[in-house]
Amino acid sequence: MLEWLTRNNVETSLSMRKAELFDVIKLHAPQEKTFKMDQLIRSHGHEVLRLPPYMCDLNPIELAWAKIKRVVREYNVNSDLTLTRLKEVTEMAINQVTEIDWCGFDDHVIILEETDKKTDYWKIRSTNS
């Protein structure tokens, strides 16, 4: 804690207790987390959109995973896949997720977002998470 305070030019006393140091850090810490990856993405002209936690239905990759798992299940009817065969089937399932699928996943999420915005459902859910 002392190292962080020193590195950020915040005056402290060596006699301060841990709780006091933590309070000082909270006062001087940036209000919003910054990530190097976000800076890189923004430097290329893109916007970073963070989903509220635990909102799988607004994440298109969850739909892709659902398709992959469904395909693997279809090839594992007897529950007898060896590790080698499971790897092969999983790779095949991943390759079956097409660009058309991704467009559909994105469209589905956009429809959910629009519906949620109209009902303020997103705001309610993100504050309850």
UniProtKB/TrEMBL annotation:
InterPro entries: RNaseH_sf, Tc1-like_DDE_dom. Residues 32-74 form the Tc1-like transposase DDE domain. This is Tc1-like transposase DDE domain-containing protein. It comes from Parnassius mnemosyne. Pfam families: DDE_3 (PF13358). Signal peptide: none annotated. GO terms for molecular function: nucleic acid binding.
